[in-house]
Every structure is written in structure tokens, then in C-alpha cells.
């Protein structure tokens, strides 16, 4: 990881030089190029005011226009938003959307570190940060970012176990966001956010995990019940010691029990039978 950070740091100056070179293109069209530009300008002036409708272009607030003059990017970078002018025959332009774009990563079958096959999908938020790089460095920035997101998702999840995938979604999303952002920097793309949407497990694995969870809950319930029985037996032992010290306490407890039964079940009649009588019969 440290080595990767050093490589990224070493590549940053090269990226900056490349971006600067694209933005400050040498505007040397040559003699033939300047003649064509001059002829286009003369044609525009001659055909006024009709040609003004062909030369005037408008880009919206969220768009930028990259102008190509005889195949070269026009100096000054992207144009817009608002009104700008081009020369007919020699100039062409491409509109680039600068808004944040969202796309879903299709479900990917991933083999985890502990050899479990899961299906994971996600969502990526990105925007074009540098319109010139997005046009000049790659054919289709949107399609490339989508494919790279799918590959990055599989690569990142392949190094995680099932438990880590289920519990560390934020860390996985952050790792994917960093990897995508570094890879798309040369394309003028800024990956703002990555989220893991759903992790689908095989049906057999779901049943096994459910059985394991149920068994674990039953084991905890038995332990809790055993602890309750132990505490209850200790309390009964202490109560018996108190009653043994004071025989009248047993009579009071008997009266309390009769009071409780009389309050709940009025039709029940209880005749107390002293235990001393039973002991006499047993001795005989």
C-alpha cells in the first residue's frame, strides 16, 4: 500500500504536466492552416448576417464546449457557460456535461477470500472535472468508468472474507472510491462516492447461516435459563434458612399464599395439612 502511494505521488507531476500541455496547446497551424482560417473568416464576413447564426453557439450552465480548429484544441480551454463563436468549415466543438452522473454497478459474482461465492452490486457517483482530458485522453469516459468500476469491485471484494464484506461495507466503498479516483484522474474524471447496495448469498449458505444463528440463540437461551435456575435455587435456600430460624415465618407465608389464591380464584378451597401428621404416618 505504501509503495502504491509512492507511485501515485511520483505520477502526479507527470499528470499535471500532461494536463498543462493539453490546456496550452501550441497554436501553430502552419501556413496552410492559417490560410484556411483566413478564408473561413472572409467567408463569414461576406455572408453576414446569415453566417452569424452558424457561428454563434450557446452552452448551458452545466456544460462546457471543447473547440477544435483544424483538429487542434483551441487555446484557452473549455468554453462556457454562455455564448461563444466558432468559424464555419474549420471549427468543430464537443459539449461535455459537467454534472454528477450516477450509474449502477451490475451484480458481480465474486469469490471471496474464504472461497464463498456472493453476488454484489453497487452505485457510483462521478463527474467530469476536466473537460479537455475527458475528450482528448479517452474515447468514451462514461463507458470506461463503468467497466473500471465493475473490475475494481471484483478485485477489492476478492481480497475480503464473507464476514468482512457483510460488516465493513464503508471501508470497502472507500477503498473502491480511492482506486477509481486514481485510475480516472488521467481522464479528467472525479469519482465522488461509491456505495455497496446489496450482497446476495447463495440459498444453501443462507439456510446454513440461519441454522447457525438459531442454534446460537438456543444455546444462549439455555445458558440464561440455567443461570436463572441457579439464582432461584440460591434464593430458595436462603429463604429456607430464614424459615428454619423462625417457625412462625412459615405460618405467615402460608397466610400470604391463601390471600393470593383467594384474590385470584374465589371458588378454590384449600385445607392445610400439617407435615407433622405425615411424618407420624411414615414413622409408623
Automatic annotation (TrEMBL):
Pfam families noted in UniProt: Band_7
Source organism superkingdom: Eukaryota
Any one Gene Ontology cellular component term annotated for this protein: plasma membrane
Gene3D superfamilies cross-referenced by the UniProt entry: 6.10.250.2090, Band 7 domain
Sequence ranges assigned to domain Band in this UniProt record: 54-213
Transmembrane spans: 34-55
Protein name as annotated: Band 7 domain-containing protein
Gene source species: Takifugu bimaculatus
Amino acid at each position: 500500500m505504501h509503495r502504491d502511494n509512492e507511485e501515485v505521488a511520483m505520477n502526479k507531476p507527470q499528470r499535471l504536466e500532461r494536463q498543462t500541455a493539453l490546456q496550452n496547446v501550441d497554436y501553430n497551424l502552419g501556413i496552410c492552416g492559417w490560410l484556411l482560417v483566413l478564408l473561413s473568416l472572409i467567408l463569414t464576413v461576406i455572408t453576414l448576417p446569415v453566417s452569424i447564426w452558424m457561428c454563434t453557439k450557446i452552452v448551458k450552465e452545466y456544460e462546457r464546449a471543447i473547440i477544435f480548429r483544424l483538429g487542434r484544441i483551441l487555446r484557452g480551454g473549455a468554453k462556457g457557460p454562455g455564448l461563444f463563436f466558432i468559424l464555419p468549415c474549420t471549427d468543430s466543438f464537443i459539449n461535455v456535461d459537467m454534472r454528477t452522473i450516477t450509474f449502477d454497478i451490475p451484480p458481480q459474482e465474486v469469490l471471496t477470500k474464504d472461497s464463498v461465492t456472493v453476488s454484489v452490486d453497487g452505485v457510483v457517483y462521478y463527474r467530469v472535472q476536466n473537460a479537455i482530458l475527458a475528450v482528448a485522453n479517452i474515447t468514451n469516459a462514461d463507458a470506461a468508468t463503468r467497466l473500471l468500476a465493475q473490475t475494481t469491485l471484483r478485485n477489492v471484494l476478492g481480497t475480503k472474507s464473507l464476514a468482512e464484506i457483510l460488516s465493513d461495507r464503508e471501508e470497502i466503498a472507500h477503498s473502491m472510491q480511492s482506486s477509481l479516483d486514481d485510475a480516472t484522474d488521467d481522464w479528467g474524471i472525479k469519482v465522488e462516492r461509491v456505495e455497496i447496495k446489496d450482497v446476495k448469498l447463495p440459498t444453501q449458505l443462507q439456510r446454513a447461516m440461519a441454522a447457525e444463528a438459531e442454534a446460537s440463540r438456543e444455546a444462549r437461551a439455555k445458558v440464561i435459563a440455567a443461570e436463572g435456575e441457579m439464582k432461584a435455587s440460591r434464593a430458595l435456600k436462603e429463604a429456607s434458612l430464614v424459615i428454619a430460624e423462625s417457625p412462625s415465618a412459615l405460618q405467615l407465608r402460608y397466610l400470604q399464599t391463601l390471600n393470593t389464591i383467594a384474590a385470584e380464584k374465589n371458588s378454590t378451597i384449600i385445607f392445610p395439612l400439617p407435615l407433622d401428621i405425615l411424618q407420624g404416618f411414615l414413622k409408623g
